[in-house]
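Notebook entry, structure prediction.
Reason for the run: the old model in the group folder had no record of what sequence produced it. Starting over properly, with the input documented here first.
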Amino acid sequence: MKVAVFSTKGYDREFLQRANQQYRHELFFFEPHLTLETCSLGFGFPAVCVFVHDQLNGKVLPLLFEHGTRLIALRCAGFNNVDLISTQELGLKVVRVPAYSPQGVAEHTLALILALNRKIHRSYTRVREGNFSLEGLLGFELYGQTMGIIGTGKIGTTLARIMQGFGVRLLAYDPVPSPECQALGVQYVALEELFRQSDILSLHLPLMPETYHMIDRRVLGQMKPGVMIINTSRGGLVDTQALVDGLKSGKIGYLGLDVYEEEEDLFFEDLSGHVIQDDVFTRLLTFPNVIITGHQAFFTRNALENIAQVTLKNIADFEQGAVSAENEVTVSHLKTK
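New structure, fully documented this time:
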């Protein structure tokens, strides 16, 4: 099938081309994001393959459909950038890669926890400058701490399994409890109780209207002073200005972000020679107890291989009229919490 692949970097091309030796699709790579201004690049392509920052809204989708597109193939698990109401009305199929890197994202979450706690980022800089003082580097032992995991799908469950080895007391919230988490001894509690008890809070759920800014000023007020918050899921789950205020007041003692709600114009690009215009983001960078990574939690060799393989198989399945129900995204997913 002829496929327009948007938002591509060198690593995308490498892994997709390698996997495509099996499927033999006609892949045309475009570096720009898919937007209203760039969607004409996809005209005439039966399939359009996109990533997390591509815009598939009510203006873009009808234009693609009008010019022959019948399949939207997401190279990711999240679908918050797709107007599913419009895809249903147009008859467009949407497929995704539902679980390409649960281990990688969970391990990156752990990396942020350990780096923040033991202040690895600060120690690294000091030692390179010949400063071996331990002042200001005091950490705590994870053993015996209470960790709250919001969302126990594959990533949250994987994280619970990892953290159990540290002797952490595990709390969780999810409308549909994970049997594996329950077998590990994870205690499911109400959100308010989880916020009240957690020393460490980690977010692992999709961005949807009901989860947008679920961590705001009101919720922060329910948390322990000095709480550690980790978000490797979607930036819009937290109110970033509320995080800044929480850091300033000391309510938040540690903050680890791999995502940011206004990341579209920042992440995946080299902006080292530019002045970043986002004042909230630059304010976050001034805090010594904040670590931000550029949406790289998924970024492992294993994940890129899985993404390429599943994405191209999804396209082949569509071509053969046999789209996997597990990988198809429909309006019904908007009701999934």
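Summary: Residues 102-292 form a domain with the Rossmann fold fold (CATH 3.40.50.720).
The old model has been moved to the deprecated folder.
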